[in-house]
Amino acid sequence: MATAPSTAPATLELRGVSKSFGPVQALTDVDLVVRPGEIMALVGDNGAGKSTLIKSIAGIHPIDTGEVFFEGQQVSIHGPKDAARLGIEVVYQDLALCDNLDVVQNMYLGREAHDSLLRLQEPEMERQTTKTLASLSVTTIRSIRSKVAGLSGGQRQSVAVARAVMWNSKLVILDEPTAALGVAQTRQVLDLVARLGQQGLAVILISHNLHDIFDVADRITVLRLGRNVAEFERRSTTQVEVVQAITGGIGTRVAGVAETAAEGAADVPGGMA
Amino acid sequence: MSATPEATTPPPLEVRSILGDVRDRIRSGDLGTLPVFFALALIVVFFQLKNSNYLSAGNFNNLIVQMAGEALIAMGVVFVLLLGEIDLSAGFVSGIGGVLMAEFLLQGGSFHLPFWSIGGFAITPYIAVILAVAGGCLIGAVQGTIVAVVGVPSFVVTLAGLLIWQGVLLQIIGDGGTVVIQDQTIVNASNYFMAPVYAWIFAVIAIVAYALTTFMKERRRPTADSRARNYAIARVVFMALVTVGIVSWSLSEKLRIGGGTRGFPVVLIILVLFLLAWTYISDRTVFGRHVYAVGGNAEAARRAGINVTRIRILVFTIGSGMAAVGGIILASQLASVSPASGGNSTLLDVIGAAVIGGTSLFGGRGNVKSAVLGALVVNAVANGIALVGYSSAIQYIVTGLILLAAVTVDTVSRRRLAAAGR
What we know:
The complex is a heterodimer of chains A (273) and B (422).
Chain A: E1 12-21, E2 24-34, E3 39-43, H1 50-57, E4 65-70, E5 73-75, H2 80-86, E6 88-91, H3 103-107, H4 122-135, H5 153-166, E7 171-175, H6 183-198, E8 202-206, H7 210-216, E9 219-224, E10 227-233, H8 239-247, H9 261-265
Parallel strand pairs in A: 3-8, 3-9, 6-7, 7-8
Antiparallel strand pairs in A: 1-2, 1-4, 4-5, 9-10
Helix pairs in contact in A: 4-5, 5-6
Chain B: H1 15-27, H2 34-50, H3 57-82, H4 90-105, E1 110-112, E2 120-122, H5 125-150, H6 154-173, E3 179-180, H7 184-191, E4 193-194, H8 196-219, H9 226-251, E5 256-257, E6 260-261, E7 264-265, H10 266-284, H11 286-296, H12 298-303, H13 308-334, E8 336-337, H14 346-356, H15 369-388, H16 392-419
Antiparallel strand pairs in B: 1-2, 3-8, 4-7, 5-6
Helix pairs in contact in B: 2-15, 3-10, 3-13, 3-14, 3-15, 4-5, 4-6, 4-13, 5-6, 5-13, 7-13, 8-9, 10-11, 11-13, 14-15, 14-16, 15-16
């Protein structure tokens, strides 16, 4: 996925973003650039400011100072509605699905298709759901009318991601999408994330799992204590380098972490066709 | 019955695929209304063996009249339960609904607005009913606002409501008093029985309307799914048979009471109309979908842009509004209201009815028809016990056991539902 076009304006660009909660400075002069079709991994230790940063982008915690550009235009995001209007969708770690509702109902949660009498338009919603799931090659969900309570973790994640994609979104932010998943389901979700990039969406991926990040990300932005400390091209870095940036340590060796980029990238399937 | 759809039935139903689907649902813990029908069958067999009059048309009509008021109140309770909240004030708010209507009727046909004296207007029975229901809605809106905006648990708010409205009822009527309802229109709502020909006209209209809406919905489906179409046909045939069965059962004997011929209870039509209206609103409208969403995961609903506060207030308004409607029917049945109206076991009967019918206490699962099915079970027991001549002690114990069984089934099926996918 090295073909992120450099000619198009960045989907999202943050310049010098700062945010404080009372005396606590959560973000200081953070810069971030995500281009269409690019998967940007956002990493950092606990308390590094990852969550604050995505909540700022999503409009939940509006920024104090700094500039935000969306597709080349300067914008100000004051609330979740502003973010949604721009085409920014966030998939939170808890997925925010209603277990008692089925897949279609969850996909359209809060934005149900209806006519002037507020009657639900089920056929239209079923059609669109099927189309969106097919476009993401989600084949594991047997029936779009099955309740989310009966789905596996990976299937639920797929529903949440598909919901984020369905609304003509341009930037999808994924918060720890593989945190609670087994090996096979992690594979499914990572393939799904890669597909988002192939469809030309900009993706911000938050994860603690460097293996996952080296699997799908194009670039890696490291935050520490609310500041940018490093930005890497995935193809020209190693997990050790990234871990050093995260911890601020020098030459820290972490058990089980691959030494070279080649090792981490060896199992990337296909890349962009 | 040329209107029944058997005449147009295309290829044979895939009974096996439908049964297989039902089996899958039961395995995953989604029992639907099966336990209710099972309980109902047990109750009917037991009491019929004890007293052969139990299944007579006369007693069937009695049962319908007895259950109607509680079934209507329970419909409101279902909406509140769908949110995962509770409404303990439903019993006495129904009493308030009854007494408001009775007091408006007592104004002697004209009513002078208290605050500005630009004359008055005649209070017809219909206006009295509308005012009483509006009063119920207002109570619900206030209680709902305290729950949704201030954040006081609904258990406490409606427990306070239970005490307050009981006091207000006592204050209006006076200790040991009763307000007699003489208006014939109101009394007829519960006590009028239609001649067979009108009953059959209504039955035909109901069946045709149901068939039309069902098939029109099928036609708008994107793909011609033969299984879905068979489901639709099966549903229409089933509903037609049930309707014909109920009407012919109800009309099978003509009991002479007070010189008149008994026929089909008009209150059943009122009940069915409310059932259809609320089922439509809960299943087919954006509002209904949002109620289920808030009940399932309020935080997810909020993040999805649903105005959770507004939904909560509206649901409590519906709950108390339907309590007032049910209270009016209860008052109509007795042609009077007293400080005990909506008291005694009314509250526990209606919450019990909703839960016995299959609506979950945990929120997000259930439907409006569970109110009617549950009220049918509760009143079938009460009716049978009175008919056979057992003491009311037995009635409380049996109803309590059925409620316990219903909640146990709900809890177990919820666990299985959660376990099915993990």
